[in-house]
Every structure is written in C-alpha cells, then in structure tokens.
C-alpha cells in the first residue's frame, strides 16, 4: 500500500466537479451510492479542494452487526465507496484492488459518519488513496480509517465481466453510456 518511488502527485481533472458540488451516483443501482438501490447506503459524495471529497453516511438499524452497533463490513463499504468516488475527480474509471480498514471505535446506530478522503499518489494505473470516518461531527473522533489501492480499468472491464442483463440495461441508458465513455475519450 506504499506508493512506489516513481509515483506522482494526483492531478485534479479540469472538468472535475467544483469544490462543494455533489458528485452524483456512478450507477443508479450501486449498493454504495445508487439512488435507485433501496437496500444500499445511498452515500452522497461532495467534491472538496484538491483531489479530495467528503461524504456522510447515517448508520441505520439494518446496518447492525452487534446490537445497536454498525457492522464492520458495512462501514468498509462506506469507506470503499468514498475512496472509489475520488476517481471521478481524476476522470478515471477504477476498481478497488486492495482495501485496508482500521476500526478504531464502535459506531452506534443513528450515528452520522463524516467521511473525508483524498488521493495521495498515482503510479501508472494504480491510484493510492486514504480515508477517515469521524463521529460526533465533521471534526469529531476518528472511528474508522482506510487505505485504498484502486486500479484503472476501461469500460470494457464492466462489459466483459458484468451479467448481460444489467450490462444491456446500462448500455441502453444514454446517460450511463455518455458518462462512462466520457471518461475514456477525454483523459
Ligand atoms: C457502457 C456500460 C456501462 C458500464 C458503466 C460502468 C461505470 C462504472 C463507473 C465506475 C465504477 C466504479 C465502481 C466503484 C464501486 C466501488 C469500488 C468497488 O468496490 S469496485 C469492485 C471490487 N473490485 C473488483 O471487482 C476488482 C476485481 N479485480 C480485477 O478485476 C483485477 O484484479 C484488476 C482490474 C484490479 C487488476 O487486473 P489487471 O489484469 O487489469 O491488472 P494487473 O496487472 O493484475 O494489476 C495492475 C497493477 O495493479 C497491481 N494490483 C492489482 N491488484 C492488486 C492488489 N489487490 N493489491 C496490490 N496491487 C495490486 C498489480 O500488481 C499491477 O501493478 P504493476 O503495474 O505491476 O506495478
């Protein structure tokens, strides 16, 4: 998870959403961010300065692991989604290769997890990023932390590996196709 010596600092794409703007879902049925996914976390990420974002996630009763406490896997999902959203500021499509998570404090149900994430380095197709989740407010205690290694892929990664039903539905949605392809032709 340590960037190699030839890694470079991330560069915010000129067309990236301005600081303060919501990024929007990359796919309406995404478990992490989709607004058409009733079982999902519906995480909304907002661009920050640089190659960084913020997001909020409210822990619901259906996210419990132990009584009244968030399941660690759900918190890892929130971190994964937050880190993944960063790649939109680079205008790169990427998937999680590795995710390392520290669970520092228990997170009770009804808590708002205030997430902040930033890309720290880029080396070829590898994107290194880090995130924290705080409770008790945006400046509260750190409850969770994660480092991510995302790997850049082409749209074909999804076309080649996804289930045909969902791929065909996505490919017949002009907004989805425009959004996905724009990242490939405007590097
Ligand atoms: C028109 C149609 C509509 C489609 C529209 C879609 C739009 C979608 C938009 C945005 C989607 C974003 C979705 C975000 C969702 C939240 C994030 C997730 O949960 S993603 C899901 C979980 N992750 C996976 O499913 C990855 C599964 N893994 C793979 O597919 C492969 O392993 C992959 C692509 C990651 C790498 O495979 P390789 O064959 O392309 O590349 P190799 O050569 O193996 O790796 C490249 C470099 O990365 C390192 N690397 C790869 N995996 C690593 C690992 N686990 N740990 C450390 N290094 C790793 C390698 O060592 C290599 O490094 P060296 O270039 O040699 O220095």
TrEMBL record:
InterPro entries: HotDog_dom_sf, THEM4/THEM5_acyl-CoA_thioest, Thioestr_dom
Gene Ontology MF term list: hydrolase activity
EC number: 3.1.2.2
Catalytic activity: octanoyl-CoA + H2O = octanoate + CoA + H(+); dodecanoyl-CoA + H2O = dodecanoate + CoA + H(+); (9Z)-octadecenoyl-CoA + H2O = (9Z)-octadecenoate + CoA + H(+); decanoyl-CoA + H2O = decanoate + CoA + H(+)
GO cellular component: cytoplasm; membrane
Listed SUPFAM superfamilies: Thioesterase/thiol ester dehydrase-isomerase (SSF54637)
Topological relation to the membrane, as annotated: Peripheral membrane protein
GO BP terms, alphabetized: fatty acid metabolic process
Protein keywords: Apoptosis, Cell membrane, Cell projection, Cytoplasm, Fatty acid metabolism, Hydrolase, Lipid metabolism, Membrane, Transit peptide
Pfam families tied to this protein: 4HBT (PF03061)
Subcellular location: Cell projection, Ruffle membrane; Cytoplasm; Membrane
Domain Thioesterase: 68-127
Family, per entry: Belongs to the THEM4/THEM5 thioesterase family.
PANTHER family per record: ACYL-COENZYME A THIOESTERASE THEM4
Protein name: Acyl-coenzyme A thioesterase THEM4
